[in-house]
Fold:
Amino acid sequence: MSYRFRKFLKSKRKYTNAVQNAGPAEELYTSLDSNLSKIKQRTGNSSDIVIREMTTAQENKQIGVIFVEGIVDNRTIHDFLLESLMDDPAIETEGTERDVLETIAEKIVPLGEVTRVNNWKELYESLMSGLTIILVDGVMQGLSASTKGGERRSIQEPPTEISIRGPREGFTESLRTNTSLVRRRIKNPNLWVESLQLGEKTKTDVEIMYIEGIASEKNLNELRERLENINMDGILETGYIEELIEDQPSSPFPTIHFTERPDAVAGNLLEGRIAIFVDGTPFVLHVPSIFIQFFQSVDDYYSRAYIASSLRFMRIMVFLISLYAPATYVAATTFHQEMIPTQLLVVLSAQREAVPFPAVIEAFLMEITFEILREAGIRMPQAVGQTVSIVGALVIGQAAVQAGIVSPAMVIIVAITAIASFTTPSYSMAIAARLIRFGLMIVAASFGFYGLILSFIVIIAHLCSLRSFGIPYMAPLAPFIPADFGDSVIRLPRWGDKERPRLFTTKNEREGSGQKPTPPETRNIKKQQMKKGDLNDD
Amino acid sequence: MMIKGLLCFFSMLLSISILSGCWSNQELPDLALVSAIGIDLSEDGEFVNTIQVINPGNVAGEGIQNTGGSESPPVSTYTEHGYNMTEAQRRISKKVSRELYYAHTNLLVIGEKLAEERGIQEIFDALERDNEFRTTTKVVVAQDAKAEEIIKTLTSIDKIPANKVIKTLRSTERIWGENINLETRGLLQKLISPGTSPVISCFRAPGDEEKGEAIEGIQETQPPFRLQASGLALFKDGKLIHTVNGDTSKGILWVLDKIKETGVSLDWKQNKEAIVYEVIRQKTSVSAQVKNNQPKISVEVSAEGDIGETAVPIDLRKPHVLKDLEGLVEKEIKENLLSSIKKTQELQTDVLGFGEAVHRADSEAWKEMKENWNDEYFPEVEVDVKVHAFIRRTGLRNKPFLMDF
Amino acid sequence: MEKAKITPGQLFILIFLFELGSALLIPLGLSAKKDAWLAILLGMGGGLCLFLIYQALYNYYPDILPTTYMQEITGKVLGKLLAFLYLIYFLYIAARVLRDFGEMLVTFAYDETPLFIINALLLFCIVYTVHKGIEVLARTGELLFVLLYFLAVIGFVLVVVSGLIELNNLQPVLEEGIGPVIKTVVTETWYIPFGEVVVFTMIFPYLNRPKHVKAAGLTGIALSGLNIVITMVVNISVLSYELVSRSQFPLLNTIQAIEVAEFLERLDVFFMIALITGGFFKIGLYFYAALIGTADLFKVNGLSRLIYPLGLVVLFSSMTIASSYSEHIQEGIRFVPLYMHLPFQVIIPALLLLIAVVKNRKKQRL
Structure:
């Protein structure tokens, strides 16, 4: 164990101490009965807390077994704990020096992890995280046996990040499953996991994962420090952590990327990033994140380089469309009619003739209608969702135009914008665009293209001023880092992109030289007597 | 802190959007799209402006709203007068419910009377200074008519009459070459430059004027009143001095290197204009030399083309026949050019840009000639025309079916 | 000084954007008539020489701002006075360029919007970016450079495709001899835009690799100079000298002439908007130089305390320096080059360098 890790643990201890001060860390009682009643009282007689009292066959020792139903594996408890405790004749402590707990731990309970519990605090923590507590009458200590389990969602394809080519696995709500999915991909002892508990009340398990030797020390220390500073009562999702550790909390743009895909996490770890797992959510954060990352999908890495590059380029263009399309329409039709070709202008003008609203109001109406539909579509039960989308399509498309409330061109613009906003692979980036779009529409209505270009400059300047864990957000574009450019807007083929991104790590070589495949010069196809069936399968 | 900032930001956003509500901002239905401007001179020396405003619902509105249909015309026209351009233009607002928008004005028609009597220089300042009006607007002169009449005429295929004029000019310039598709920018360059004078295409509107303005007029296959391109108007010192037609105008455009494709008819052994040579591409260059203070101009044409038509039995498979034909073509073109040049020299206006060529060749000598170029030097200038014509192909057939061997 | 570092690449891009800033916009070097492009080219040569002076000064004092080393070179009192004059100069030119762009917008598209609002908006964006520091300004430059260059290439291709270029319009070259050209260089194109790189003396100390200043600066000036020359050649060959000389904003008139496929026409507004990007950097850099200079001279900690007052100074002086656009332009031609650009860009730096050389020799001898 390295020095750093110890330091980390120490600081963690500091943190837990601080929490301990709030609650008592008293020792257990000697009497089992008083222990059990204390537990009952402390947990408010909750019905999911099971307390099983029993007596050993030989010595009439009173034993209490306590666990929380639902988060433990019932079979394990039944097969390996209760049964052996009741039947095993080995509990003979009289005449031996041995402590009864030691006997139980060493001889009787065939479980992977059995540890001692010394005080109430430890007892509750273990109990609540799915361990089973064994108390013996007359002993001021207890045992906790790892029996974590219970019902979990199985591994499924991640619903928010679908890929055409690539693994179909997605993270689940179980922390251990998630880390195992990554470890299966990187079979290397250098894949290190540090864990800590966050949330005074929830005691959520949080783990950070990185590849020792690739991830940069600076980033790791920074992350540890930021995580330690979290002092909340509950952490329910990575979103809580994201908000508490990001560099620029007031920016609409996300500076921490999340994913549901283990292959994405593995890839990011290999580039020197650090992943943050939180128990109870399938989303995994990784830091540091850069702007361009939000436009990369895992598919890019599995498909051919040209295609991946052009798709990335397209995504960025489409992102700009999703930001600027309605605003540009408003600016062009109310300020800069000269830019529209005459024929098109005549058509637009004819359409707008009967529309009672100014263009900007029309745009707002349609955009808001669309946002309502989108939000409703997410919240609706799936069975109703279909109906909503049909009604929505009718409202937006047909009826509004026929009623003369909006012009067909506006419908086209809104539709393009809507579809465009779905091409951004990252939801958090797409939703930022949704928000900014409305501001841009106001600017366009007030100052036309002048307002739009100024807003564009300001947005660019804002993006350039962002940092994620100290890494410039717009890197490797600005500041331009030629070595990292190979995997940004474009993706070079594997054999052409030999280095890890310099931004995240100093150890750059990631592949050997001469990886570019070259076929042999000629294939010696000899003239030979073809027999029947030579060319077919035989 | 953050909430304060956000509040500040949004209140600013809100206030700028409210404050700026009416600056430079025009909704589409509040605009009258002017497609063409016509400028005439009235009897008492005022400018008469006629504008053609597109009625969008009638051009594109069919199928969207019920306002469309061929019952009402695709454009409306408005006429007003004033002592200067701005006055005349702004006065029109008394008649139009919308703000006039000139950025899509693609056509400027100049009345013949205005061009002859007052000159065209005055009208461009207001147009050029305006930030809506574009210098890509095409210019034509109304021949034997007021600009107003051209503007008011409805056309059948292209619903917007201005478009009809522009498209006609463009296509005829490209395939026949007696008219020039001139932009305001080019016109201005020539008006300013002392070494050249402008030529502008003419448009005529023969027929019954009253009928041309009515929608019934375009409900016939052969409307009684149809806009058509005619000759070229030659200007001197900003005033129209003469209008030329046919081969003369073609010759002028040839010297100006504006010919792209055209046909050249050749005589063949007593058969008048029996063979047609189709020019596919050509290049004309004008250069000058000054010797003893006497300028000498040489015009070099090199044309490439096909045989388009033969009305006499000749065997086009034989290269020497083509050689003979090439000689004929060269002679024909040269004569055409020389006669056109002579015509302009008679009129004492250098629409051919010879002055510019002299300027380029010898700027010292030009300084002296500049003042009296049109009246003194240009009519006397010696011109040498060289033509190289090439017949590359003979079309899909080799010999005409008239040939009986 | 801020704690920030920029790379030579970023310096190159900033110089490029800065030079193009308003030089593309205004009719530059037209007193040389058709040979304006030649005047610009020669002016660029002069600019390169000036840059070498600035760079030599920087080599003597690589870590401190000119406002400080002036005091070391000429003594406390005179140095402070000089530094103060430079700050005024930067602020004034920032205001002038702001006015240029505001006037362009009002003339070309926003005739009903008050100039004050137009200027205020542009300045607001500049203040926002400058507030974030030189690093952000440089990075923004890197991204917008790509955009601007892309647009420039597109514009050039469209002009060529439309068949607008008539090189005849450039002839005869040197109609009146080299005299007028030299005169234009000395009175105009040397200073605008090339001598204006004097503002980068305030930026040099931020370089992370001081050795590369020379290469970055010279290539930046050369590339931007060539671009301006090409632009002027295109302007004159499309519009002819007569139209260019009467035009307030020749480049926009050139763009206006583009007509491709009946679809790509009337693009001037689009390009006007793109030009704002250049203006943004030009004003931004002047403003930034004034800002850090003030902070350095008066020992003010933290730029944010100065940024709003100075911003207001620029904004209001941009409104009050002239009552009409013609007055503004006349000031720019008659007064500014002779009484401001010449001393601040040429004479003072040259003298400073001279003194610095002498002083350092002495030191070495001792």
The longest strand of chain C covers residues 259-260.
